[in-house]
Structure formats: structure tokens, C-alpha cells
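Design request, C-alpha cells follow.
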């Protein structure tokens, strides 16, 4: 595993201070213990605020004297001469104290060119400025398939039904648990087994639904299941074509062919024109899970460094579930503060934004970012720079042909026979309407007729349209500005470019 190698290299290269971000202490400790065996062997000491310093593998009461306070513990570590790794668990609440920071700097100085390393292990990253240049931050990844395989095997062994599990079922059970910590995976397997008395391919769904709940609990990522397909989206032919073309882009076959992994796309455009809808239906089209990243929630929490930790965790989970689509709806809202001079949140949003961009730049895992935005002026320029996304699409108000398509889709959803409606007439009346406004007018017409206890008609729809003032009129300036901007920089999502340029109001 890449990260384990990196950690091993850092320790052997005598890096004095490593920050390991993880909530899985046990797994991480085992990794450290394993790498400590290599040349030269090192002793491993674990510090906690409850027990002070205890050597790895020793009972908790065999503690070094007076090492409960962080300062004393670091001082103790400095006095050791043997090759050692000192693991400090959850030092983050103390690290901002001037004395602790100073002791850490002293340790760094005294560890130079010795085989001694301090590893700070915490679920959240909190690095004081004084240490920023000295510390290497590493993310401990969630278990991969082979690690989960160990967990699954143990679970199957306990139930003695191992023989009945096919290789295929095993793989599905493993895949279903990707994105969970080792403990979570164990719990989920156990629950599936308890629920149905066995652990076979039939239990994959139990594992999956448990995973969805666990992921939801962290509150930032959400598993989305969309029943609609691409056919529920009217118009946007260029965009659909682009998406269809990439249906198999995440397969092994595509890699062998020499194609790069798609990185992501941005869908900009007028509100209510199907951006979120098309993003959600892509999940079905590509057969990949859709994970919605709630950027607003990333900022939640009062603790310093919390937002970064939130984002980091969410991205880590997405990566471990990959190939997957990471859906960031209305990303402009989240980054509203980062471009302007008024940095009201003390720079948090621009920091978050920076780490997100870095992640996008460096990610090698097949996580396809699908972002939507209604307003471009809020988005920082770096974001839209060529190469960040594979493509930036602009979704305009639907043209006549597209409006017809949208009417047909939404009428067909509600009535099996729609021949009694004159779509061409409807299309003319609703010039300047978004897809959402068309749908709303249709629903309004149905309510009207329903209240009068009769079937709705063409005239009801026309009346509802006439009663609506579309956004393109009430917010004409914004819409025009957005179009002017997009015309230069983004690719139109609708099929006919000529049509697109003709559209003015
Ligand atoms: N092009 C379209 N085709 C079919 N329905 C549409 C279209 N555009 C909008 N709608 C309807 O309006 C709803 C809201 O659209 P949405 O995708 O949320 O718009 P956006 O994200 O662009 O603001 C959709 O769920 C769908 O019912
Ligand atoms: Mg939307």
C-alpha cells in the first residue's frame, strides 16, 4: 500500500515529526509496529493522556513515570537514546499550548540525524504554525479489498459457512464494504450475518444499506439513489452525448486502450434547467455510486482545523468507494467567500477550496467530480481554469425543441395518452421558461382542474404558463450576464449551436 510505504520511508529517512490523520488507531498502530521491525529495529512507545507513555505490547499499567502530561512525555522522549517511534494519540487538543509546541520543536531539533520519530495520531489535523514547516501530514487510508478480505474471512470462519461463498459473492461483499473502517466493516458483516443467518451474495444488499447509513452518519457525504434515467432529461443533447460516450470510461478496458481516467466536469447554468437532474442520472448511466458532498456541512463545527478534517474524511471515503461519482451541487454557494476580498470566515473557505483543488489535481483514484453552479462570478478563477475539469458545460434556457421534449417527458410521466395536447402551441407560449418552470406550470394546471373535479386540458396549462413570471424575466440581468460569460468559456449543453446563439430575449 502506497501510504504505508511512504510512512516507512519517512521513518527511515529520519523525519522527526509525522502527523498521521486517522480515527483507526488500532490499524494504524499495527502498521507502525510492523514498520518498526525493519532495519534498524525500533521500539514503539504509545502516549495517551490517560496512561502516559507505555511501550507497545506492554500492559497499560507498565507506564513510564510522570509522563501523563504532554510536556513531560515529550521531554521523556527526548531523553531516550535508542531507535524509537513515539506515537502520541490525540495530542491535538494540547498542541496549541505554547509549552507543548516548544517541546515538540525541541524534540525535532534533538532528533536530527537519530533514529527517533514522533508520530502524532489523531482523527483531526491540527498543526500550529510553528510546526507547519517541520511536520509531514499523512492520511491513513481506509482498508482496501485485501484488508477487508481478512475481516470477511474471520467473519466467515466464525460462522463456518465459508465453503458456500463463491469467489464472486466474496468480491461483491468486499466491494460493498469499501469506504468503511475495519471496525465498521466487521460490524456490518456481523449484522448481515445475524439478520439472515448467513453471509452470501444475498446479503450484499444488507451490507450496502448498512454502509449507506454509516456514511450518512458522518453527515457530509450522502449516498444518492436516483430512479430517473437520462431519458427523463429533455434537451441538453451535447451534454448527454458526452456522458454516453464515457459510459465505459472507468473500465479496465478503457485503461488498456490507453484512455486517461475522466477527472470531472462542471455544469454551469441557469437555475431550473436540469443541471442537478442530469448529474444525478449519470450515476445510473455509468453504473457508479453517486456520493453527494455537502460543502455547507464541511464548514460545520467550531474547532480549528475541523473543516479540513471533514473534507479530508469525505474525500477519503469517496476514494475508497471508487470508482464513484462525487456530486457537488451548487458548488458556487460553498465557495462564495473564497474569491471576494471580504473573507468573513477567517479564510476557512479559501483554505478548504485550496485543499479541494489540490486533491483534484493530485487524485489518482477514479473519483469523478460532478459539480454544478448557478453563478459564475462567485467561483474563484482557478477553479475554471482549463484542465481542472475535463469539460465545462453551459446549460442555457431550453430552446423550442427542448421545451417540447420537456413537455413530452413531464406529461408522459403523469398521463399515458398525451395526444390530446398540442405541444407545439405550448412551446410557443412558454418561451423563456426553464424546465422547472414548465413542470411547475403543468402541476399548477393539474391542481386547478383537480379542484374543479375534472381532467386538465391544454387551456389549463396555457393559463398556468401565462400566470407565471419566469426567472429569465425577473432576473434578466443575471441570466444575460451568465450567458455572456459562458459563451466564451464553456461548451453549450444543447445540441444546436446556431439555436443557442439565436436565443435572445
Ligand atoms: N431539461 C429538463 N428536462 C426535464 N425536466 C427538467 C429539465 N430541467 C428541469 N427539469 C425539472 O425541474 C426540476 C429541477 O431541475 P434541476 O435539475 O434541479 O435544475 P438546476 O439544477 O439546473 O437548477 C427537475 O427535477 C425536473 O423535474
Ligand atoms: Mg440544481
Amino acid at each position: 500500500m502506497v501510504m504505508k510505504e511512504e510512512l516507512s520511508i519517512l521513518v527511515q529517512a529520519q523525519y522527526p515529526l509525522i502527523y498521521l490523520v486517522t480515527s483507526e488507531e488500532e490499524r494504524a498502530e499495527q502498521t507502525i509496529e510492523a514498520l518498526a521491525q525493519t532495519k534498524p529495529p525500533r521500539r514503539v512507545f504509545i502516549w495517551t493522556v490517560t496512561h502516559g507513555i507505555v511501550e507497545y505490547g506492554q500492559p497499560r499499567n507498565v507506564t513510564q513515570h510522570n509522563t501523563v502530561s504532554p510536556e513531560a512525555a515529550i521531554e521523556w522522549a527526548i531523553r531516550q537514546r535508542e531507535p524509537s517511534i513515539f506515537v502520541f494519540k490525540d495530542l491535538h487538543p494540547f498542541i496549541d499550548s505554547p509549552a507543548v509546541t516548544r517541546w515538540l520543536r525541541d524534540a525535532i531539533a534533538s532528533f536530527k540525524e537519530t533514529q527517533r520519530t514522533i508520530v502524532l495520531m489523531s482523527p483531526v489535523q491540527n498543526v500550529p504554525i510553528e510546526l507547519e514547516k517541520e511536520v509531514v501530514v499523512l492520511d491513513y487510508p481506509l482498508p482496501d479489498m485485501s484488508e477487508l478480505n481478512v475481516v470477511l474471512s474471520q467473519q466467515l470462519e466464525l460462522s463456518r459457512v465459508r465453503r458456500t461463498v463463491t469467489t464472486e459473492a466474496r468480491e461483491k461483499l468486499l466491494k460493498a464494504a469499501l469506504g468503511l473502517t475495519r471496525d465498521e466493516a466487521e460490524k456490518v458483516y456481523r449484522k448481515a450475518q445475524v439478520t439472515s443467518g448467513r453471509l452470501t451474495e444475498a446479503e450484499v444488499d444488507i451490507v450496502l444499506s448498512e454502509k449507506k447509513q454509516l456514511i450518512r452518519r458522518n453527515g457530509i457525504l450522502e449516498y444518492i439513489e436516483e430512479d430517473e434515467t437520462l431519458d427523463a432529461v429533455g434537451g441538453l443533447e451535447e451534454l448527454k452525448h458526452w456522458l454516453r460516450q464515457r459510459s465505459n470510461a472507468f473500465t479496465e478496458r478503457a485503461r488498456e486502450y490507453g484512455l486517461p481516467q475522466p477527472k470531472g466536469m462542471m455544469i454551469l447554468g441557469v437555475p431550473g434547467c436540469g443541471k442537478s437532474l442530469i448529474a444525478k442520472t449519470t450515476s445510473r448511466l455509468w453504473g457508479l455510486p453517486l456520493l453527494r458532498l455537502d460543502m455547507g456541512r464541511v464548514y460545520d463545527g467550531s474547532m480549528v482545523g475541523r473543516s479540513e478534517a471533514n473534507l479530508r474524511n469525505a474525500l477519503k471515503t469517496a476514494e475508497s468507494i471508487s470508482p464513484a461519482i462525487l456530486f457537488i451541487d451548487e458548488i458556487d454557494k460553498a465557495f462564495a467567500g473564497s474569491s471576494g476580498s471580504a473573507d468573513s470566515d477567517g479564510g476557512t473557505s479559501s483554505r478548504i477550496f485550496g485543499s479541494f483543488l489540490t486533491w483534484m489535481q493530485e487524485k489518482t483514484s477514479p473519483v469523478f467530480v460532478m459539480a454544478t453552479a448557478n453563478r459564475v462570478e462567485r467561483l474563484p478563477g482557478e477553479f475554471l481554469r482549463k484542465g481542472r475539469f475535463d469539460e465545462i458545460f453551459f446549460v442555457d434556457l431550453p430552446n423550442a425543441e427542448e421545451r417540447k421534449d420537456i413537455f413530452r417527458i413531464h406529461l408522459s410521466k403523469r398521463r399515458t395518452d398525451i395526444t390530446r395536447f398540442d405541444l407545439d402551441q405550448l412551446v410557443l407560449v412558454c418561451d423563456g421558461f426553464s424546465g422547472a418552470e414548465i413542470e411547475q406550470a403543468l402541476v399548477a394546471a393539474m391542481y386547478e382542474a383537480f379542484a374543479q373535479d375534472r381532467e386538465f386540458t391544454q387551456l389549463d396549462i396555457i393559463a398556468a404558463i401565462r400566470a407565471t413570471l419566469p426567472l429569465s424575466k425577473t432576473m434578466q440581468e443575471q441570466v444575460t450576464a451568465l450567458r455572456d460569460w459562458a459563451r466564451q468559456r464553456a461548451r453549450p449543453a444543447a445540441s444546436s449551436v446556431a439555436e443557442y446563439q439565436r436565443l435572445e430575449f
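Comment from the thread starter after seeing the answer: thanks! The two ends are 57 Å apart (CA to CA).
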